[in-house]
């Protein structure tokens, strides 16, 4: 069964990362902060899934 929450998080992260690369955004921008938050959410979700 597809994990739609995981796919949505990964999709949002990929699109934000692409935008940041194109614009050359610094680390403290809201987009980069959201990417860090998405990384945390992804790792937490994968850890719960493994248990």
UniProtKB/TrEMBL annotation:
Organism of this sequence: Novosphingobium anseongense
Name this polypeptide is given: Uncharacterized protein
């Amino acid at each position: 069964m597809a994990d739609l929450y995981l796919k949505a998080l990964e999709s949002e992260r990929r699109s934000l990362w692409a935008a940041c690369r194109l614009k050359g955004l610094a680390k403290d921008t809201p987009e980069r902060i959201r990417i860090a938050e998405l990384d945390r959410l992804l790792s937490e979700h994968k850890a719960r899934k493994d248990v």
